[in-house]
Design a protein that fits this description.
mainly alpha
């Protein structure tokens, strides 16, 4: 089995993070809220977390907190760190969001469809969940583009919220339009559909490990 560089890095980061003082943990938590918007590659996100923990430990040796060491302009420093990491692509996003949220949900929906028979609401979810997946990816792309390009933090956050609200309203509108076109999926096909979802789920877990190990070779953390 491949080495799990992401898992090892995350485990070490969690242990070192817990050993920091409360002020430094709060500073890093705030920083990561911004940095996570810059990349769908979770290894890259954890690598930046490690850098921040290194900086906090060095500041402690100097008798300072991380916030004191970075100064009042630390948010700009966090943004610059975020822009230096690999942003990832659709596969990274799918390994992160699609595999942990979309695929188990969709598999559960089609299994309920197989057990309970034809129900309009379940069938509607079966049909619309792939559209929700692509919509979520589109929203994520727009939000990241805004995050990278907007110069003002306040403007950036406002535009990101606006994009999310508008797209969600459009998707709900399409869902209502689709309610009259629901067809029976069938018990056998529902079970096969759920099995395919679960197969893709476990495949994406292996794929994410492979991709994160590739990133680790380009940007080693050890």
């Amino acid at each position: 089995m491949w080495a799990n560089e992401y898992g090892a890095l995350k485990k070490q980061n969690r242990k070192r993070f817990d050993a920091l003082c409360l002020a430094d943990r709060n500073t890093i938590t705030v920083a990561m809220e911004s940095i996570q918007n810059a990349s769908w590659n979770l290894y890259e996100v954890e690598r930046v977390r490690k850098d921040l923990i290194d900086m906090a430990e060095k500041a402690k040796e100097e008798g300072k907190t991380l916030a004191e060491a970075l100064g009042p302009d630390r948010r700009r420093v966090f943004d610059e760190m975020a822009r230096e990491i690999e942003s990832g692509d659709f596969v990274d996003w799918l390994c992160q969001y699609g595999s942990w949220y979309y695929l188990p949900f969709h598999a559960g929906v089609v299994l309920f469809q197989a057990l309970l028979g034809q129900t309009e609401h379940l069938m509607l979810l079966v049909l619309l969940t792939p559209m929700f997946l692509l919509t979520a990816f589109g929203v994520a792309c727009l939000r990241r583009k805004i995050w990278v390009s907007a110069s003002s933090r306040e403007k950036r956050e406002m535009l990101m919220r606006l994009v999310s609200v508008v797209v969600i309203l459009l998707v709900f509108g399409l869902a209502f339009l689709a309610m009259g076109t629901v067809e029976d999926l069938g018990t056998v096909s529902a079970v096969l559909y759920a099995g395919l979802d679960l197969l893709i789920f476990f495949g994406s877990r292996l794929l994410s490990r492979f991709r994160y190990n590739q990133t680790a070779r380009r940007h080693p953390w050890r």
